[in-house]
Amino acid sequence: MNPVVKSLSVERTLGPSADKFLIKQPTQEQAEEAVRTLLLWAGDDPSREGLLDTPRRVAKAYREFYKGYGEDPHEILDRVFEEVEGYRDMVLVRDIPFYSHCEHHMVPFVGKAHIGYYPSTGVVGLSKLARVVDVYARRLQTQETMTAQIADVIDKALKPRGVAVLVEAEHMCMSMRGVQKQGSSTMTTRYTGVFSDPGEQVRFFTMVKSPGL
Q: What's the whole-model pTM score?
């Protein structure tokens, strides 16, 4: 008898438009069997004592690593506080830690995100911005795509006068394999609205990097 599988809606978003498609999500048993296959392919014995529970642990870890697929960043940003006493200067949340997994090699990349925006009709709770970063980071990603997704969802939800996102990360696919250059980092940015002005970009970058703030 074929194992029962359920449909899983996966949203791949880059910008305001979303492309959703349905896939059949494997069962827990199928996921664990896939891990056993990889262990065999790597040259080890999945039946030895130290690896007996590894397939179950890996499947459980994957649910945590990739829980962003089951979360909606639009819902996180659905409450906007409009009573901000006319505040219209930049709101900046910096040094938001994250870890994600490269969609090319499924190895981690780890870093920090910095988000700034100029309010228009209101502001959002500061912790919500960190949660948005987490939602997109907990998916198979490229850093470039994640940077754009964070900026675009904030722009759509808050309708601010401008959004700036800076992401800095070290990629294990570059540190652990390939050229094996430990300590190298990658920086990506996305600017919308008033941040198209180079002067505003400089101000944002200066605030992000100022040690006294």
A: 0.84
